[in-house]
Amino acid sequence: MKVKVNGNDQALDKSEVSVAELLAINSVEMPDMVSVQLNGEFVKKENYVNTYLNEADEIDFLYFMGGGRRSA
Amino acid sequence: MNFTGEQIERYSRHIILQDVGAQGQKKIMEGKVLIIGAGGLGAPAALYLAAAGVGTIGLVDGDQVDLTNLQRQVIHFTPDVGKPKVASAKEKIEQMNPDVQVVTYEEMATASNISGIIRDYDFIIDGTDNFPAKFLINDACVFGRKPFSHGGILRFDGQTMTYLPGEVCYRCVFKGSPPKNAVPACSQAGVLGAVAGMLGTIQAAEALKYFVGKGELLTNRLLVFNALKMNFRTVNIKRNKSCPVCGEKPTIVELFDEEQPVCDLRKEKE
Ligand SMILES: [Zn+2]
Description:
A: 5-stranded mixed beta sheet, B: globular
């Protein structure tokens, strides 16, 4: 199965891959620091395990980023 | 507002830009921008907005300049170490462009003061480095219907989006602060100074575009970039129905202060 992760093609050798597994495959160490969008819809964290990918799905991992200044 | 001869000269490279022109420059000069955090993002943003002649620049920061800031916070110089950041930034802006009125707030933004501060401004720039502050700015701008630019940086990465009332907000993307144990340890954090400059400059450009009213803002899309690969990408984002602040059943109906993990390398070493 082929999907698009953050705009790049990624081939998966299994036919059943959940969002949680995809995070692991991509060595996302801290899933709590990521927001996942699947084909333009956000996936709730509690659904990472039971949301399975389909051929040609587009997935974006959006990372939490602080940065700038400790000011508020 | 009529330009003086000196202003026509000073802003000539804007005025000759077809999409800015004298009209756009006037709007910039009537604009009021509030920069929350006079640090890595706020410093470059403030410099470009000042150079552009933004009418009023408000600066919110309760901290003093520290030696570790100078690697990226380009509005502060070596002799400024120990000075309040807002005072240091105000001095530079006034030297650069006397047309700009600078208002300083030597305090941290909190749930109790933020609404009163943002009220007087047309556009807000989030130049803070911690999640509680970012969410506070988001919520205050959603409630106050104020446009704002979100910015985040980490190591070689940056992200930014521009909120307009009624459009995708920061909580549509990130519901709330990540659990404290998930936030990268300080020793793994760090940031390439120039990355802060890139991002703060993009935020300034968004504010200027907002005033001029030309082009497309980073609204309903998140710009993400990685400076190691020098790869830029925008991700389209839709309003999130389950957004806790602007969704169908909002659970956040008033501003609140959250505790924040503070990154202080010196304390970690002790
Ligand atoms: Zn929202």
